Amino acid sequence: MGVENPAEVAKFIIRSRIADPLFVYSYFSQLPDSNYSKLKYIISSSVTEACNNSVLLLGPRGCGKTAVLELVLEDLLKEHPDMISVVKLNGLLHSDNNCALKEIARQVCMEHQLQFSKMASFDENSKFLLSILRECGLAHKTIVFVLEEFDLFTEGKQRLLYSLLDAMQSVSSQAVVVGVSCRLDADQLLEKRVRSRFSHRKLLFLSSPGEDFQRLAEHILLLPMDSRLPNDFRASFNEKLLNILAGEEFKGVVDQLCYSDSTVSHLLRFLFCAVCHMDLSSGSLSIQNFKSALPSIQRQPKQEALKDCSVLQLYLLVCMKRLEVKEVELCNFNSIMKEYKSIPDSFQTCDNFARNVCLRAFEHLLQRGLVSFQDNRGQGQSTEFRPVKLLISWHELQQGLQSFPSCPVLLHKLMAREG
Amino acid sequence: MIPLFVYGGASTGKTSTVLYMLRHLKRPFIYCSCVSCYSPSILFESILNQILLHRKNESGGYLSAKRCERPSDFVNLLGEALTALIDSLNGNMGKSSPNGRMVYLVFDRLELVRECDKSDSIIPLLFNLYTLLSCSVLSQFYRITRRVDELSTAFSPLFKKYCEPLGDLVAVSNEDMERKLYRHLQPFISSSQNETFTISSQPLLKDRNLRKCVFKKSGVCETLDEIDFHMSTSAKYLLISAFLASRNPATLDASLFDSTGGTDNRKKKKRKVSEKSVDQKEAKEQEILMKGPGTFPLERLLAIPQCIASVGGYSLDNEELQNDGLRSDGSDSGSMSDILLQLSSLCRVPILLPKVESCPLEGSTRYRSIVSEDIVLKVARSLNSDDSEFDFTLKSLGLNGGLTFVCCCNPFALKKVKL
């Protein structure tokens, strides 16, 4: 077995760790004052004391709300095996009341091995829900309702929320409602009667700052004791990795990454890219891997679209820009063609194409998303007459021209000239 | 594994690379294109059919395996189907079966989902499909856009032309010969560049290059083609009159379609017009041209061909009596229904577009002509070549590069004004 194999195994181990959210967020569970422990305390206390409760988990996307919730539920299921049953609903799928009740009935039936009838009507399902709550209350079993995308449940009349929270008001029921949402003002969206039945517990998940990330990276990237990996390989890999993570360059890369988005999932994607770039022959991660992963995370779609354009399309874009500078109020394909035809008058060029070719190139620009129609009203007219607008700025166009491989000098001159 | 997004310009090989790679590695995958699955229920059912290996056939009445309209049903059914599939893959370890336990879902041309009806709910659903499938099977998610390569249609005739002098195509070419070949090809390159985006109709492309060229002052060689579709004479008249009605305002009709052929205007003494008013008039005409074709009511469309036709001594029906040169003025009753039939077929092509917002109380609907000038010129020229005494010419007044079309019916002049 050469050096290839341990590196591949290492890559495989790290990638599977990154893709497993439970592993990633178990790091957070070790911290003493984290949301994990608070949430666990809330749910476990309501289980043991047999009372009803509701809580909202709020935070931007990719912060780990659902993952932390999964961890908590997993731990609680281990601690109190028969006292908890979980029903999961999602706002994208079940925001409609009928759908939601059907789904609740289906999940409860699956868990308790009851017969589930697809033809059950809305009334039957709601009666079923009430009776289930009553029965579980009598049996000292808590039902945990997990409502993901909670803000989508608050659209419309909020019947589901009201019926759930109302059912929880009775003495005989034992239920916990956990809402997970990316909108930080999700509780303001609730109706008055629903809000009054809701206990205003909120847990805020904020994205982790930069220096936390280093410890998280260590947690993920350091190779564990594994039978498939030779010990010396593992030791050298970990040592090199620690050196990199402590270095200044790495901190610079992470800072640049966190400027746009410092949520955990964003950083995880960055780590995944970096590990994919790992050179198998050298057998370890290098700082170069991290640096090359950065541009693939921070993409520039318009620049890429510009690089993809043909020279004729660049001419059309430059003509549109010049029209904008001249403040022509009607900018459609005809006016662009006029500007384009006026170029050979002042410059000698061989790039003089016919009108239908230019029209087709223009349509490709529309499809690519570099220009668009100004409004959707003119559906009856053909492409030549509808007013259009540029979707890239002067600065981006100039950058695109400079990085274009064989850009004619004429275009630069045209951009520079005002008239 | 984390979902993957493949993006890029048209015909860059995205779909082909992905599918080829999956087939080469023999991974089980499910492919659905958002071009054919334009609504959510079709999308869901297509995916489920592929997973359940169900083909629509006549015995089943072309039904899908399961009816699925709501996203919640889809997620449930998909989860069940995927677990069943993975179990069957695990159990069946024969040589012909695909490798691996991971099922790949490929969504092609995902940008079309934006335009389908319920796009608000479908887009987040598809993006979050990965997280919604909280079962033990992981699926990967590709998004690809794709388009047909248009350059091949242009290059194939060029290549044929390129190879013409070479009697023996197998002969190895050296650089000298290549240069000679290129020089031979060069005059045709510019003309075929202008035809880059044409899609050829049935007549062979070779004929186009051999057609006689008309040389303009600038020395650019342009081929004037005949129209290669068939239209009845009355339809041609309607097309031309629709074009004229769109481009000229209604107030000019009286002077243009005067039965004396407009010769009166020329005899009138021309006042000395000041330069400023000429410029203003030109600017206004330019503006009208830029804005595009205007709308006209149905009565105007029907009146113009009558004027044109009555001058030329041609009646709009009885094409078979053309040779007699009949000047039948009692045949108006028969022509009206023919014209209306032609009108509806023109609307379907579409050469005419009815303006959508017109109120039915206002009277007849207004129409707008959307053909370009060169097609109208071709049609007019084809009318010229018909055997009739009537000489229909279109005279163009060039105004700083813009064109205003004026119809000039001159039954007696034999001079043809060419563009």
Automatic annotation (TrEMBL), chain A:
What Pfam families does the database record attribute to this sequence?
Answer: AAA_16, ORC4_C
GO biological process: any one?
Answer: DNA replication initiation
| Record keywords | ATP-binding, DNA replication, DNA-binding, Nucleotide-binding, Nucleus
Q: What GO annotations for molecular function exist for this entry?
A: ATP binding; DNA replication origin binding
- Residue ranges constituting the Orc1-like AAA ATPase domain according to the UniProt record: 48-172
Compartmental location: Nucleus
Q: Which GO terms describe its cellular component?
A: nuclear origin of replication recognition complex
- Looking at the record, the residues that make up the Origin recognition complex subunit 4 C-terminal domain are 216-400
Role played: Component of the origin recognition complex (ORC) that binds origins of replication. DNA-binding is ATP-dependent. The specific DNA sequences that define origins of replication have not been identified yet. ORC is required to assemble the pre-replication complex necessary to initiate DNA replication.
Record family assignment: Belongs to the ORC4 family.
What name does this protein carry? Origin of replication complex subunit 4
TrEMBL record, chain B:
- Swiss-Prot/TrEMBL GO biological process terms: DNA replication initiation
One Pfam annotation reads ORC5_C
Q: Whose protein is this, by species?
A: Salvia splendens (Scarlet sage)
Disordered as annotated region, ranges: 255-286
Family to which the UniProt record says this protein belongs: Belongs to the ORC5 family.
Mind telling me which InterPro entries this protein's record contains? Answer: AAA_16, ORC5, ORC5_C, P-loop_NTPase
Keyword check for Cytoplasm, yes or no: no
What is the protein name stated in its UniProt record?
Origin recognition complex subunit 5
Domain (Origin recognition complex subunit 5 C-terminal): residue spans on this chain: 231-384
Query: Which molecular-function annotations from GO does this UniProt entry contain?
Result: DNA replication origin binding
